[in-house]
Specification:
Largest sheet: 8 strands, mixed
Strand order of the largest sheet: 2-3-4-1-13-16-15-14
CATH architecture: Roll
Number of domains: 1
Bound molecules: zinc ion
Radius of gyration: 18 Å
Number of helices: 5
CATH topology: 2,3-Dihydroxybiphenyl 1,2-Dioxygenase, domain 1
Length: 312
């Protein structure tokens, strides 16, 4: 038996101050804050989700906000760089926009593609690449219009000290296709249009440490609950220990750790972010899962209010 994921569902990272996080991803990058909720395992801290206008799988980056925590270290066993895809011809717009907000960037090339690389305010490594694939993002904000807006995730670069074993998991377990090697990169692709390009960097960066500025995990797509259970059995048959299914309200999740140390999740596409508030207003209000609803007042007092605002 073999299985194939459609690619990245979301990437989850740890950041510091949540308002700085919103200012960067919503106001500078022009993404939609599609859900404002709490970390279900740590309810006194935010879990913020950003994506396209609907928060479609493959467009999502999500954050656990740990204000005041000491920064982590990007290293082996982590997603080193998270990639964003913009329409062809939009890279000049993004250079100008990063300059406007005084965000330093570097330009690099790999596998014949040009990348703009930069960091978010907490040190998370990001890049922007132009690609034809992927539907335009209709969410327009603060001067970011549909013709240049980030369409979603391009994928990610995994840092692994055991790159051959990580590569084996991408091919044999997740069903990604090996497309080439260049320098110290190995490139894989999946069938979908977004979140579909995964690189492994074979150079070791030393051991990573979780904390602000570091990716916590990367999630792969599965189409529904039944298929997720089939994935659970399949990953277990391949020798990995998989967690029970966890209900994350907007999708269901299972987790396992690949041999290089990166935490992998397999997440269902449904039900999505319009399940507990309307598509028009989602992201504006603090949404809590029903088990925390009777603690709303207390939690609203603890959590620093955050808002999407236009930055000049
Ligand atoms: Zn996740």
């Amino acid at each position: 038996m073999s299985k194939k994921t459609m690619g990245t569902h979301h990437i989850t990272a740890i950041v510091g101050d949540p308002q700085e996080n919103v200012d960067f991803y919503a106001s500078v990058l022009g993404l939609r804050l599609v859900k404002k909720t709490v970390n279900f395992g740590d309810k006194v801290r935010y879990h913020l989700y950003f994506g396209n206008e609907e928060g479609s799988p493959g467009t999502l980056i999500t954050f656990f906000a740990w204000p005041g925590a000491e920064n982590g270290k990007v290293g082996d066993g982590e997603v080193g760089v998270s990639s964003y895809v913009v329409p062809v011809g939009a890279i000049e717009f993004w250079k100008n926009r990063l300059e406007k907000f005084e965000i330093p960037y570097t330009e690099t090339e790999r596998f014949g593609e040009q990348y703009l690389q930069f960091q978010d305010p907490h040190g998370l490594l990001l890049e922007i690449v132009e690609r034809e694939e992927g539907s335009p993002n209709k969410w327009e904000f603060g001067g970011v219009t549909e013709d240049v807006a980030i369409k979603g995730l391009g994928g990610a670069t995994l840092y692994s000290a055991k790159s051959a074993e990580t590569a084996e998991v991408l091919s044999n377990v997740l069903g990604l296709e090996l497309v080439g090697e260049e320098g110290d990169y190995i490139r894989f692709k999946s069938a979908s249009e977004l979140g579909n390009v995964i690189d492994i960097k074979t150079t070791s960066f030393g051991k990573g440490q979780q904390g602000p500025g570091v990716v916590h995990h990367i999630a792969w797509r599965t189409k529904d609950d039944t298929e997720q259970l089939a994935w659970k059995s399949f990953v277990e048959e391949n020798g990995f220990k998989v967690t029970p299914v966890k209900d994350r309200n907007y999708f269901k999740a299972i987790y396992f750790r690949e041999p290089g140390g990166t935490l992998f999740e397999i997440a269902t596409d449904p039900p999505g972010f319009a399940r507990d508030e309307s598509l028009d207003t989602m992201g504006e209000k603090l949404m809590l899962p029903k088990q925390f609803e009777d603690e709303r007042e207390e939690l609203e007092n603890i959590l620093i209010p955050v808002e999407v605002r236009e930055l000049k």
